Amino acid sequence: MGMESKYIWMDGKLVEFEKATVHFLTPALHYGLGAFEGIRCYGTSRGPAVFRLPEHLERLIDSMHILGVREMPYTVEQLREAVHQTILANEFKQCYIRPLIYMANGPLGLNLDVSHPSVGIAVWEWGAYLGEEAIEKGVSMMISSFTRHHPNVTMTKAKITGNYPNSVMAKTLALRAGFDEAIMLDPTGLVAECSGENLFVVRNGKIYTSPRTTILEGITRDAVITLAGDLGYPVIEEPISRDQLYIADEIFLTGTAAECVAVREIDYRVIGSGKMGPVTRKIQKLFFETARGDGKRSDEWLDYVKC
Ligand SMILES: Cc1ncc(COP(=O)(O)O)c(C=O)c1O
C-alpha cells in the first residue's frame, strides 16, 4: 500500500506497524470524531527537516478545540517531540507525517464528554500527491457539484475527520470524470478551495486568493503568500467567482500534499497558456528551495530532526 513503516507512535509508545490497530467500537470510527494533520518532512543538506511543524500541531489542537473536545492529552511541544521520535525510529530521510487525535476509550454515542482522545502518528515515504508530471505540467480540474461546507454545518477551519467525506466525494467524482482535482464553491457560489488544496489566481500581474471564511487556512497558503510577497507580488484576499477562474492568466494550488502545482484547464477551458505560467513557476521554485533548506526563510520554517 506504500504507507509502510517500522513503527507508528500511539499514545506515547512506538508500536510495530502491524500492531497499530484500533477497536471496532472506537467512537471516532463511527461518528468522525477526530482531527488530523498532513505534514511533510523534506530531505535537506542538514538532514530531515519538517516544514512548519509547530503551526501544523497548533492547527491540530485548534481542530479538536473547534470540535468541542475539552481534554487535550499532549501539548504542542510533546507532539513535536513525538513526531521527531517517529521519524528517527523509522529512519526516513524525507516523509509524509500523519498525526491523528481520535475519540476512543469510551462508550459509543454523540456526547463528546464521555470518551477520551487518543493520539497516533504515522510516517511514510510519499512522492508528489498529484503525480510527478503535475509538478511541471499542471493539472486539469472541474468545478464540483458538491458545495464546500457552510461554516455552521461543519467548520472549515478544522481538519475534523468527519468533514472529509465532502472532499472525498468531490475528489472521487473529479477522478471518475477524468479530471485530476475538484474546485469547490462555497454555499454562496463563490470559489472556496479544492478537495485538499487552496487556490490562487494570477491576473494582469496580480495574485488573488479566496478569503478565509469558508476555507481551511492552509499552512502552505500562508507560506506562499509570504514567498509571493518576497518576490514582489502582494497577494489580494478577495471573493473569487467561477468566471474569474476561466479568464485567469494563471491558476495554482497549494497544499502540504500537493505542494505548489499549476492548473492548466478547468471545466474544459484552457487556463492562460495551458501550461505553468511564469509567476507560478517563480513561486513553485522558491517554495521548493525553501522547503528543501536552500531558501532565505528555510531556517524560519524548517524544524530539523536531529539524527
Ligand atoms: C480542505 C483543505 N484545504 C486546503 C488544504 C491545504 O492546507 P495545508 O497547506 O495546510 O496543507 C488542505 C490540506 O490540509 C485541505 O484538506
CATH topology of the largest domain: D-amino Acid Aminotransferase, Chain A, domain 2
Order of H and E elements: EEHEEEHHEEHEHEEEEHEHEEEHHE
Mean pLDDT: 97
Extract low-pLDDT stretches.
none
Termini Cα gap: 27 Å
Ions and ligands? pyridoxal-5'-phosphate
**How many distinct domains?**
2
Percent in strands: 25-35%
Helical element count?
9
Name given to the CATH homologous superfamily of the largest domain: D-amino Acid Aminotransferase, subunit A, domain 2
CATH class of the largest domain: Alpha Beta
What is the general shape?
globular
Which architecture name of the largest domain does CATH use?
Answer: Alpha-Beta Barrel
Q: What is the radius of gyration computed over CA atoms, rounded to a whole number of angstroms? A: 19 Å
SSE class: alpha+beta
- What proportion of the residues is helical, as a percent range? 25-40%
Main sheet characteristics: 9 strands, mixed
Tell how many strands the DSSP assignment holds. Answer: 17
